[in-house]
Amino acid sequence: VRLVNSSVLLDFLTFDKNSNNDSTDCILIMFYAPWCKFCARTAAQFNALGRAFIQLDILAVDAVHFSNLNARFGTVAVPNIMVFHSSRSAIRFNQTERSFDKLVEFVMNVTGLEPNKSVEVEDIDYIGPVSSIPTIEPDYLLWCAWIFVILCSSNMFIKSQYGQNAIERVKTLWQEHQ
């Protein structure tokens, strides 16, 4: 499994550059987010796929850092595991259970490749290259969204009849205490 950036991924998906005899014309790609707990749960199984299918190029792309690829490849949620055949998106892994056996079955059904049957998920697969521990980082977009919701709700409350009554009560209490 290789972690790649957008330019390396696009180079891999240029099929003419990859058409050599020792490789297949299929590429397995996982779009992930480092902070996503679902991506972290899938990471070890995905990392083990690299050892099970050594004849297959298996890549992982940070969908948050390289967000320009999301619209191009239809990534609306992560983890998004896709098989590309001859530089085109062929199929997306669309099962709820992301176990190693389900991923192996998916790759076998789509590519026709046989896995190394002795491969199992090991401790080293939890280390990387795709990390199985989600990063903890502030979500500034979420904070901005909450501030926007609070400001809009406050504005609507102030303009409502209840808000006007509350403002009048505060004005009356203020005048009584002066």
Automatic annotation (TrEMBL):
| Stored Gene3D superfamilies | Glutaredoxin (3.40.30.10)
Q: Which GO terms describe its cellular component?
A: cilium
Query: What Pfam families does the record tag this protein with?
Result: Thioredoxin (PF00085)
Occurrences of domain Thioredoxin (ranges)? 15-107
**Highest taxon in the source lineage:** Eukaryota
Q: Which PANTHER family match?
A: THIOREDOXIN DOMAIN-CONTAINING PROTEIN 15 (PTHR14684:SF2)
Q: What is this protein called?
A: Thioredoxin domain-containing protein
